[in-house]
Design brief:
The chain is an alpha/beta fold. Helix 4 packs antiparallel against helix 5, helix 6 packs parallel to helix 7 and helix 7 runs parallel beside helix 9. It folds into 2 domains: 240 residues, Rossmann fold (3-Layer(aba) Sandwich), CATH 3.40.50.410; 36 residues, no CATH class. The two termini are 18 Å apart. The chain is built from 10 helices and 10 strands. A hairpin with a 2-residue loop joins strand 8 and strand 9. 34% of the residues lie in helices and 22% in strands.
Length: 315
């Protein structure tokens, strides 16, 4: 379940369009009952989606008298009641982080490529499920908002935004220059609160390296009236350094060298990873969102197939 080869640092719009074949093989799961102990991307039923009017028919014993349509009753001189059905269509909002920290990988594809692929798969998956699809794409300089709509043209416009906002190597085209305003994860979450309708399904796709004291509060505010999942994209090097050898990592002022065989450096790095991991776990727990992880070495379609298994839980 893989698309034709794409550069490891960037995925084009045609590459994101080709992902619809993989998305057709997946099925967005129904939510599980509240209180389920099984981990997964869904943790509660749809919230706030209400009931849509279906029809009016003659009153029958057992009908809720609060649903009586008094205008029709008066016109036809016999009791009639309104029937409703649960609204099936729901907005799906994708927050896709393409910031500077995602222009990196030690294996597989860059984190920004994996974020873009996850967004593409989920967009097609939601469209084929009959849902509205929208998104917020941000790259540290630009933040683009597209409100949910149930049209293929809207998905293509969203994916084009994702393709355009990826950071490119200098051999392809210049990296985007930093603007006056830093459009980060918190800003995107604030914007999501304005855009999201109650009962939306929201996927936040990021490496979550730059969380702040506000991130948990903003996620929690979204999760109170929506189903929110956090898809964290990770490179193996972010979890554990090589045991030996000298390595260079690109930085703002040029390459930064480190020695993997230095025990003090290894210990300090491991402690920093531990602190961030614990802070992130607490952020998600406090906010009430369901997290899942995707490695840069993973194929997103295969990972989503596992995460979104037939019963909607992580296998």
């Amino acid at each position: 379940m893989t698309a034709p080869e794409e550069p490891a640092t960037h995925i084009s719009l045609p590459g994101l369009i080709r992902l619809q074949a993989d998305a057709r093989a997946l099925k967005l799961p129904a939510a599980r009952p509240v209180g389920s102990r099984q981990a997964g991307l869904q943790r509660s039923p749809r919230r706030g989606r209400g009931m849509a009017f279906a029809e009016v028919r003659q009153y029958q014993p057992g009908d809720d008298i609060r649903s009586i349509d008094w205008r029709v009753t008066a016109r036809r001189q016999s009791p009639h009641t309104k029937l409703y059905e649960e609204e099936r269509e729901r907005p799906v909002l994708l927050l896709c982080d393409l910031g500077p920290s995602l222009f990196f990988a030690s294996t597989g594809a860059y984190k920004q490529v994996r974020c873009a692929q996850l967004a593409g798969l989920l967009a097609w998956l939601a469209l084929w499920s009959g849902d509205q699809v929208g998104g917020i794409v941000f790259n540290g300089t630009t933040l683009s908002v597209q409100r949910p709509a149930r049209r293929k043209k809207s998905v293509l416009r969203l994916l084009d935004t994702v393709a355009q906002q990826q950071r490119m190597s200098r051999n392809d085209q210049p990296l985007q220059q930093a603007g006056d305003t830093n459009r980060d994860l918190d800003t995107a979450l604030q914007e999501a609160r304005r855009v999201a309708h109650t009962g939306s399904r929201i996927f936040v796709i990021s490496d979550f390296l730059n969380i702040t004291a506000e991130t948990s509060r903003l996620l929690g505010a979204l999760a109170r009236h929506n189903t929110v999942s956090a898809l964290r994209v990770i490179d193996p090097l972010e979890l554990k350094l090589p045991d030996s050898g000298r390595f260079a990592v690109a930085g703002e002022d040029g390459p930064v060298w480190f020695d993997g065989s230095n025990p003090r450096f290894q210990q300090a790095y491991a402690e920093k990873v531990r602190q961030h991991t614990e802070a992130l776990a607490e952020c998600f727990r406090t906010a009430g969102v369901q997290p899942a992880s995707v490695m840069t070495s993973d194929q997103p379609a295969l990972i989503l197939q596992t995460l979104l298994g037939p019963r909607g839980h992580i296998g």
